[in-house]
Design brief:
Strand content: 15-25%
Number of strands: 7
CATH class: Alpha Beta
Number of helices: 8
Shape: globular
Radius of gyration: 18 Å
Largest sheet: 7 strands, mixed
CATH topology: Maf protein
CATH architecture: Alpha-Beta Complex
Structural class: alpha/beta
Length: 223
Amino acid sequence: MTTLLLASASPARLSTLRSAGIEPLVAISGVDEPALLAAAADDAARSGRGAVPAAEQVLLLARAKARDVRAGAPEAGQADLVLGCDSMLELDGPGGPEVLGKPADAADAVARWRRMRGRAGVLHTGHWIMRTGDATEVGATSSTVVRFADLTDAEIDAYVATGEPLAVAGAFTVDGIGGPFVTGIDGDYHGVVGVSLPLLRELLADLGVAITDLWSPRLRAGR
C-alpha cells in the first residue's frame, strides 16, 4: 500500500478521498498564502506579464503547501506521497475577472453572493503531488464552470448565517448546505468539492503510481 499525506485542513477533501477508498494522513501547512500571492503578483508585474491567472495562483499555493508539509510535518516521514490542493472561484465582472478565495467575514460573504447569484463562475483547484523519498513532483489545475441560482436576499442571509460560506473558497459548497444554490456544473464535480479524483489519478500515473495502490487495506482485501 502507498501512503498519501494530505496537506490540507479541508474536511471536504478528506471526505472525498475517503469515499474513493483512500485513507490519507493529514497535516496542515504553515504557508503564508497572501504573501506568496503578493510575491507572485510582483514578479508578474516586473516581467510585464500582467495579473497572475487564477488557474496559476491555485497551483502555486498547492505546490507551496505540499513542499511545506513535506519539509516540516512529522507525518511526512510516514508517507510516500504528499498532496497539496488549493481552490479559488473566478467570476467575470465589468472590471475584469475577480478571483475569490475564502471570504473575509460574513459581510464579505453576503456581498459576494449578491454578485454571484444568477451568474456562472469557474472554480479552479490546483493539485500538487510530491514523493517524500526523492522530491519528484507533478501538478495541474482542475477548472470547472459553476452556475449559481438567483438567490433572494433572505436566502443569502440565511446561508451565510450557517457559517459554511466563511470556510470555503468562493463562499459556497456543492456537496453541503450550499448544494441547492448551485444549479449546475460543466466539468468535474470532485474538483469543485476540492480534489479532482480523475486528475489525481492522472498525476499519480505520471509518478508511476496507480491510484489503486492508495486504496485502504480493507478495500484492497475485498478486490
